[in-house]
Amino acid sequence: MTREQFTELVVAEQEALRRFLLTLCCGNRDDADDLAQEALVKAYLASGSLRDGSKVKAWLYKIAYNTFISSRRSTQTIVSIDDTTDIVDNTLAPDREYKYQELYAALAQMQPKERTALVLFYLNGNSVKEISIIVECSEAAVRQQLSRGREHLKKYITQYGER
């Protein structure tokens, strides 16, 4: 991949990639921007070895996803539904202008694989096959993550609505 091709890719995908990471980071714009920058640097450094131009978008999202997972390994914490008040409170939320704080609170309760599958499928419009490439698992596993993710999301949003 040439420098010009990489630049075109970044221009075309930068905002969607940031939205993807913003959702994975449950609305924390600073974390999402840091991860996007780190992922783009990693992609640039590896771009010379990319051979199959047809899968470049999945390749970029795979790097972003792996960057997200790596960042969470060292800071892995489980958030209780009772601890999400500050995420939903617009005065304390990291992304005050974002209007989906309840969704972020629900997504914060989910396992990263389920959250990623839901975000890629419903928000980015990726196919199950593309998601399986990005997260490096079988298509059957992606379908299972989507199914479980929908159930968990429904449960968490229902719990939040009862508060």
Describe this entry's structure for a reader.
By secondary structure, the chain is mostly helical. It starts with a helix and ends with a helix. It contains eight helices and no strands. It has one domain: Butyryl-CoA Dehydrogenase, subunit A, domain 3, CATH 1.20.140. Mean pLDDT is 79; it is low at 77-97. Helix content is 70%, strand content 0%. α5 crosses α8 (139-161). It has helices at residues 3-24, 29-46, 56-74, 85-88, 101-108, 112-123, 128-135, 139-161.
Beta-strand proportion: under 5%
CATH superfamily heading: PhyR, sigma-like (SL) domain
Radius of gyration: 16 Å
Helix amount, in percent? Answer: 55-70%
**What is the class in the CATH system?**
Mainly Alpha
Number of domains: 1
**Tally of DSSP β-strands:** 0
Tell me the span between the first and last alpha carbons.
51 Å
What is the string of helix and strand elements?
Answer: HHHHHHHH
Give the helices and strands, then pairings.
Blueprint: H1 3-24, H2 29-46, H3 56-74, H4 85-88, H5 101-108, H6 112-123, H7 128-135, H8 139-161
Helix pairs in contact: 1-2, 1-3, 2-3, 3-7, 5-8, 6-8, 7-8
